[in-house]
Amino acid sequence: MPRPESSRIVSKLPATCTFKPQGIAPQQLEHVELTVDEYEAIRLADLHGLYHEQGAAQMQVSRQTFGRILSSAHRKVADFLINGKSLQIQGGHVELRRAHGLKCYSCQHEWGDRPKQDKESCCPKCHSRKLAPNLESKQIKPTDNTNE
């Protein structure tokens, strides 16, 4: 009997959940389903440039699991783009956590009441630019894909 899948931590739900090629009716397309945890892995690794170890820490999974999630997400996005399919972001075992400040990956320093991260942000202690939202411990299970 396989081990039950544990929840992955995500800090942001997608603003848009469905993507498709323009000019083709949805019922004429094959569909690719990207889970919310796969979406989060792409957001952390590809958009924010975090290393697998850092992304894994954010999602509270092992580095190997993060790599598998990201690899699966990349295959699905490639299938969607190259084969002209529709993409639906939904599902997965996830828990939503909200940010309440910033954390430096270089020195682990935490600060701020609200995440105010931009391209010029750096750690006040070590001046590193490797920052991520500092997540509060309250866990919220998402019931739908709305952003707050």
Account of the 3D structure:
This protein has 148 residues and is α/β, with parallel strands linked by helices. The chain contains 3 helices and 7 strands; from the N terminus they run E-E-E-H-H-H-E-E-E-E. Strands 1, 5, 6 and 7 form a 4-stranded mixed beta sheet that branches. A hairpin with a 5-residue loop joins strand 5 and strand 6. Helix 1 packs antiparallel against helix 2 and helix 2 packs across helix 3 (63-83). It is globular, with a radius of gyration of 17 Å. The relative contact order is 0.22. Mean pLDDT is 83; it is low at 137-148.
Concise account of the structure shown:
This protein has 148 residues and is an alpha/beta fold. The protein is 28% helix and 24% strand.
Notable characteristics:
single chain; 148 residues; alpha/beta; 3-stranded mixed β-sheet; globular; disordered C terminus
How many beta strands in the DSSP annotation?
A: 7
Q: Give helix and strand order, one letter per element, not per position.
A: EEEHHHEEEE
Mean of all residue-level pLDDT scores: 83
Number of helices: 3
Measured between the Cα atoms of the first and last residue, the distance is: 38 Å
Assess the beta-strand content as a share of residues: 15-25%
- Helical amount: 25-40%
Largest sheet: 4 strands, mixed
Structural class: alpha/beta
Please state the overall shape, judged from the principal axes of the Cα atoms.
globular
Cα-based radius of gyration, to the nearest Å: 17 Å
Low-confidence stretches: 137-148
